[in-house]
Amino acid sequence: MGLLVDGKWQDRWYDTKNSGGKFVRAQSQWRDWITHDGKPAEGRSRGFKAEPGRYHLYISLACPWAHRTLIFRTLKRLEGIISVSVVHHFMGADGWTFLAEDGATGDTLYGLDFLHQIYTKADPAYSGRVTVPVLWDKKEQTIVSNESSEIIRMLNSAFDEWGDASFDFYPEALRGEIDAINGLVYPAVNNGVYRAGFATTQAAYEEAFGALFSALDTLEHRLSRQRYLVGDRITEADWRLFTTLVRFDPVYVGHFKCNLRRIADYSNLSNYLRDLYSVPGVAGTVNLRHIKAHYYGSHDTINPTRIVPVGPTLDYGAPHDRARFGRAAA
Ligand SMILES: N[C@@H](CCC(=O)N[C@@H](CS)C(=O)NCC(=O)O)C(=O)O
């Protein structure tokens, strides 16, 4: 685990000294947009035009943020339009690597060894964290974006000429509600599990823990009345929650000490999780081996023995009861 300083790799764990033991996630630094016409998005100076075959995703199958982008690529039928490299699940002193073992593909574009070399290829003087996902432009040989919440919005619409335009996970009329749900789910749940797990003081952990379970209780109640987070159709808000839920019982309960309740103990959330898992194409994006091996193996301040627990028994493919709300709408 480390970061780049003026283009030089340094092996360093997250610094929580100046934040009272709280884990504070750094802002993603690459924030350009792919658009239909290639004009720069508002407030940006670089433009990237949507074109088949031009872009590439660097992802980890373990990472919930990268997982969002893989789900959108799959559901929008962009497999033939946007290529992918999968990093190795172990993130050690070199950060994410392209060791092509155990389901990782290696760097299928340039044959590099480490993900940080992709960042310095784009900017030799880059300073900051080296995270997945990365949306890469093969033509300009640079990073378009390393912010998953924005990459999924691009995938949702910019490539509709070639992908499946019938799915719109961020429809105009629902944007306000989707943004409001994301505003609850991101800090308390998606990032909340990390804030609990990476806290280095009891107080910081308990604060994150309380907010996490209070948000899960709210979501459980919401899902007792409707099939999806924003009514009767699947939206971006559901996929953003899904990638945390799917990791919760196998990893966050134990490794990040989020153990007040399991998702399995929440009737609506667990059925909802299986409902989303049953959407064609989604199960193929979930790799529990990479998920468990990454977290338990890579965070040696939390799990120095790197032993990966054998349990729990999980069956996300089991039937769910969500059809009681009516048919699934795209
Ligand atoms: N805000 C980013 C966060 C991405 C992120 O933190 N990814 C993690 C993996 S789950 C990572 O690569 N961490 C490496 C590090 O922080 O050094 C996004 O949503 O795209």
TrEMBL record:
Gene3D superfamilies (alphabetical): 1.20.1050.10, Glutaredoxin
Domain of life: Bacteria
Stretches assigned to the GST C-terminal domain: 160-295
UniProt keywords, alphabetically: Transferase
Annotated site residue numbers, Lowers pKa of active site Cys: 252, 295
Gene Ontology CC terms, in alphabetical order: cytoplasm
Alphabetized GO MF terms: glutathione transferase activity
Pfam families for this protein: GST_C_2, GST_N_2
Residue sites binding glutathione per the record: 96, 129-132, 147-148
Secretion signal span: none
PANTHER family in the cross-refs: GLUTATHIONE S-TRANSFERASE OMEGA-LIKE 1-RELATED (PTHR32419:SF6), GLUTATHIONYL-HYDROQUINONE REDUCTASE (PTHR32419)
Protein name: Putative glutathione S-transferase
Taxonomic source organism: Mesorhizobium australicum (strain HAMBI 3006 / LMG 24608 / WSM2073)
